[in-house]
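Comment thread on ticket #2218

A.B. wrote:
> Attaching the input chain for the structure job we discussed in standup.
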Amino acid sequence: DPVPPALRGVIVLDPGHGGNRRLGGSSPNNAVSASGVLEKVMTLELAQAIAAELEALARRRRGLTLDVHLTRETDENLGLSARAAVAAETGADVFLSLHYNGFNGRVRGTETWILSEALGNVNAAEDRGLAERVQAAVFGTLARHDAAARDRGVKDNQRLGVLADLSLGNTRERHRTRACLLEVEFIDVPTVDRLLNGERADAVRTELASAIAEAVVDDLEANA
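C.D. wrote:
> Ran it. Output below, let me know if you need it in another format.
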């Protein structure tokens, strides 16, 4: 078989929230699942699962070298600029912030956010490409398990400090890091809670993590 071209990538996974106090614009927790599981716990579990899948991909594929970092490994909070700064410090190619939504127990859907060009994003097209890959991976996985899954798409009309280009190390002259923020689903919906925290949750989370890992590597290839 032909050997694929060498591909290297630095990836920063940012599990949203953490700890027990607000810090630098980051709240300790926002959403709570219908059964009481905290968003901050779920984001860390997902980040760890994605990291494991990325490392497995690198072991299986010749020529693929991945350097994976998490902004937090424990139940601690970091300010938004401190989270983004991990991308600058590591020279990250991809920065993915992980979150879950909550609203009224009925609203559903997966959505992925980028910083808009109007708010100063110097590489909005590249960020959108990453976001579209991640969005498709997550929605596609959830839809296989739940016909009521909803694709809320890629959005860019909010000021999200964790995606600020200067904190990520991006300038108009040099913008290596592509960044987006994923809202996996609304965990206050009982059916979503059962899917992501019920008896089959480990398998679903592994599928989600695998799909996201593949999407990230696809993005590295597209921008190599």
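A.B. wrote:
> Thanks. Noting for the ticket: The radius of gyration is 17 Å.
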